[in-house]
Design a protein that fits this description.
Length: 374
């Protein structure tokens, strides 16, 4: 904005104009880096700026650690650089360079003459779904090669969109078409499922319908925690068949019903006092998302509950995860956008729901929960 525009915004606009003028001054930057009281702040800000510039390289280092299986090998036992090279098929020079780069990102760390997992690497090994997400980022990075063109086109049409093209296309989708995306969502579901189940008392209900439930990973987790709850899943028939196999393996087949259909065009089954949408709403643009909420409202009995669980925009302390990561991820997918809690609550009101509230979770960066009543 021009300075005159800043002044039109009142005292905050004038303050931002002054701040930006000062911070962009090379003279001020040199002074702040030398002055004892401002030096720590200047160094921290310089580090943040460098991380923005280098973020893609960091992501590729992580991708190399996942693709080679480095973290998995170090989880089993500390290894020397020579042993690492032999395990992951890299020359000693390449293995050493990767280890040192990974150590800078706290993925690994040296111990004597060997290497072991770092704090970040150990945390990743405890969440195997992260590795699956990192592995499929190759598609996302290909779509983001020219981010300006992606923005001008309105998104979609690339490699990532091809992973789930069946979801908004006519028909029900064949198993070969749904397998890759369904498996990815199932692998990453443990990252959110337990936080959702910890936050909301599913055991207070009689019958749960998980809409867009994929391979049933979330439903299986709920079933294990709420043994008296009757379970059901609604998704495309080919996806539902994959869910049936997972739920059979979990010993939940007798208390689970699978409904096949598209929630974008088919009515939802009735008879459930609780419906869940886990990482579903943000995958869809406003029109389809509103149609889905109205379909849920029509399917629920009076007093029935809807639980929405997904990452939200403008999450305090995790702002970059919402509008930056998911904003561009969904743009590449060609459908959906991250929404704030207030936006979703307004949509719920428009759909006919009478009470909506957010329920705190232990990890709001990963998932936030909104519950609403018909």
């Amino acid at each position: 904005m021009k300075p005159s525009k800043y002044s039109e915004l009142g005292w905050r606009g004038r303050w931002l104009a002054l701040r930006n003028h000062v911070l962009s001054s090379p003279g001020f930057q040199r002074w702040a880096a030398r002055f004892a009281l401002t030096r720590p702040i200047a160094r921290a800000r310089a580090g943040e700026l460098f991380d923005l510039v280098a973020g893609f390289v960091y992501s590729q280092i992580l991708a190399a650690c996942i693709e080679t299986g480095l973290l998995r090998h170090l989880f089993d036992s500390p290894l020397t650089a020579e042993e690492v090279g032999a395990r992951i098929d890299l020359p000693i020079e390449g293995a050493t360079r990767l280890l040192r780069a990974a150590a800078a990102l706290r993925l690994v760390e040296p111990i004597g003459s060997a290497w072991t997992l770092g704090s970040a690497g150990a945390a990743m090994c405890g969440n195997p779904g992260i590795a699956d997400m990192v592995a499929h980022h190759r598609l996302l990075y290909a779509d983001l090669t020219d981010p300006v063109s992606l923005l001008r086109s309105g998104g979609g049409g690339g490699k990532l969109a091809g992973l789930w093209h069946y979801a908004e296309a006519p028909g029900t989708g064949e198993d070969s078409a749904v397998a890759a995306y369904s498996a990815l969502m199932a692998a990453s579901q443990p990252l959110v499922a337990q936080h959702v189940i910890d936050a909301y008392p599913f055991h207070r209900h009689k019958r749960l319908l998980d809409v867009g439930g994929g391979e049933g990973a979330f439903l299986a987790a709920v079933g294990a925690r709420a043994p008296d709850l009757q379970l059901a899943l609604f998704d495309l028939p080919a996806v539902g068949e994959r869910a049936r196999a997972r739920l059979d393996d979990a010993g939940l087949s007798r208390r689970t019903q699978i409904h096949g259909g598209s929630f974008l065009s088919d009515p939802l089954p009735h008879g459930y006092d609780l419906i869940s949408l886990v990482r579903v709403l943000h995958d869809h643009d406003d029109g389809p998302a509103m149609a889905l909420l109205r379909a849920v409202h029509a399917a629920l009995p009076p007093g029935g509950m809807l639980v929405i669980a997904e990452p939200l925009a403008q999450t305090r302390g995790a702002e970059a995860a919402g509008d930056a990561y998911f904003g561009f991820y969904l743009l590449a997918m060609g459908s959906g956008r991250p929404r704030t809690s207030d936006e979703i609550c307004r949509m719920l009101g428009t759909a006919g729901f009478r009470e909506s509230r957010e329920i705190p979770t232990a990890m709001p960066l990963t998932v936030r929960v909104i519950a609403t009543t018909k």
